[in-house]
Amino acid sequence: MEEVQLRDEVRQMLDNIDWSSVSEFEKLRETVEKDPAIAEQLVYGEMTDLVRASSRNITGQFSLRAYPQGEGRPWAIKMYNIEKKLDPKGDIYYRGSRITSPEIVKALFEQTSWTGADGKTRYGYANANAGRPVGYRDPETGTVKYDIVSLHQPTNRLVGIPVEAVRSMFVDRETGEYRKRQVYGAEITPKQADALAEGKAVKIEGKTKEGEAFTAFVQFDAARRRVVPCHPAWLKEARKAGVDLGIGDRKAAPEKVASKARAEKAGEAARKVRTPKMKV
Asked: Which of 95, 98, 214, 238 is the S-S candidate for 266 at Cβ 3.0 to 4.6 Å?
């Protein structure tokens, strides 16, 4: 199997990280450089997939994340271990504030299945984030702030990013002009940008790396710091009911299963599009 080479741009960006802060993990950078996917996640601000690292006292799997510190200053790097899996039936806290909305908790933990680009069935979280901004009280000012919050599956952590930080990825803060961002080859419209900054899912007409057209739902993932595919549960139900949502082939369900009432219910859920997601 041919080894995937690390791009020069990524290697140079790794030089920005203050590796001395994790010097007890002597071969951490070497481990990162051997996995281009991990390296790219790290330099682009994402929480990475799990990396196995060892020191004199600790051996385990960790997620890494780099934090830019301003021009000319070395980036901080932090290691996050795997936490106990959160129980959606219990109290869920984000930054010290309990999440009281059942809809937010449901969106965070909702799981589903979908068909991947290779035709194989995948299983995982249906949504890339909570579907709406999550409020918490700032301990320093006492004011309520709002973040887009996602569940980082490798570490079982809730990860957030301020709503305005998400919006600034799509809108210039000084001029108010929308940036011409593209997701899978599709340019994001101002309306879609606003929806993504609010945690919602939007439908796009994208292209694969091979240039093939596809339609999918996408949502902003706070842990990955970018727009990713999502698979709302209502979408699966609508397809089972025979509702054509314009996102690819569908199979009409048998009449005894896909009753008129069920189809109407699924169609109503589809029209609300509370928090869509996408797939490649």
From this structure: 238
